[in-house]
Amino acid sequence: MTAEHRTHLFWLAAFAGLLLLLALFRPILLPFVLGFLLAYFLNPVADRLEAAGLRRTFGVALIIAFTMAFAIAAVTLLLPLLFDQLKQMLAALPSDLDRLRASVDAVLRERTGARYPSIQEGINKMIADLQANLGTSLGGLATWIWNGGTALINLLSLALVTPMVVYYLLVDWHKIVSRFHSWLPRDHADTIGQLLDDVNAAVGAFVRGQGALCLILGIFYAVGLSLLGLRYGVLIGLTTGLLSFVPVVGWCFGVALGLAVTLSQYGSDMTMLGLTFAVFFIGQILEAFLSPSLVGEKIGLHPVWMIFALFAFSYLFGFVGTLIAVPVSAALAVVVRFAFARYLESDVYKGTVVANTGVAEAQGSKHSR
């Protein structure tokens, strides 16, 4: 076995060991993963405060205090409203589905004429199946959230451990990064360092930028739908903004749910349907206008890649996987592009003819000397 093969086996074994450790400690990972993500996002703020003359420990303590104050305000002010709207939505869902069916029937009867009976039968069956499976689906969703999101000693540990993890990571962030770089294999340190810089730039640009964009869109949709008088407007708007982390998916979800609620609330009122759609259409224009400045134009994350990452990581690691899916998918996209560029430069891609030509030219130049 050559030295190169031994090196490859070492890194494969190290990667497999890391996956095994993540699988073993999955039930207790949430506060540490959440703490690392928060520290990563807040590190630029800590750097700016330190550059302004504040001691890093004091600046980090200030950041954590403001972050916790914001979280407490959100929990005490916003979450009760969201839970109240969610409770109302679930309680009214059977009657809303009946009204939705009546509204759709009225539109279809007018538009389809003789074909209406067969179309009506299909729609009635679909809604009946949805009502029958609603309880099971919601129960399964609640179980998944509970098992993945609170499979810890208790919820109190999340509130206590996460700020501690954020504090110590932020205080020692640059020491940790420097130590990690010192552990890189010396023969490939420059290449790996450049790759890590590219990963950091891509993840930072996408996650921070897309996070800000989602917040803006969520507020816009919530305010717009609430001004229309749409029931559950805040819940639908903020959920649409959150799901906008995956381009197109959030918008499609919001349009479908918004129009469905409009139909159940206002019937086939084309004015209200048009106004609801206009809110989401303007949101798309706002996203297209803000995205280049907030996210950047060359991140290169395809929506299908992000959807796959969300499914894959949530399947492997539960709720923790959902948290890390987007940043990890951004990092993997950079690694895949790097590997593909290396492949295009290799003899495997260029073929033996090109490789042999290069060897012959090298030997010819050697003999000519």
Notable traits:
13 helices, single chain, 369 residues
Tell me what the structure shows.
The chain has helices at 3-24, 30-51, 56-112, 116-149, 155-171, 173-182, 189-227, 233-243, 249-266, 270-294, 303-345, 347-350, 352-368. With 369 residues, it is mostly helical. The protein folds into two domains: 27-142 and 163-171, no CATH class; 189-359. The longest helix has 57 residues, at 56-112. It is globular and about 75 Å long. The model is unreliable at 148-154 (pLDDT under 50).
Radius of gyration: 26 Å
- Which quaternary structure do these chains form? single chain
Compressed to H and E, one letter per element, the order equals HHHHHHHHHHHHH
Overall pLDDT, averaged?
A: 79
Strand content: under 5%
User: How many H/I helices?
Assistant: 13
Q: Residue share in helices?
A: over 70%
Largest sheet: none
Whole-Å distance between the termini? Answer: 36 Å
Quick one: overall form? globular
Number of strands: 0
Derived from helix and strand composition plus strand pairing, the structural class reads mainly alpha
Low confidence ranges: 148-154
Q: How many domains would you count in the coordinates?
A: 2
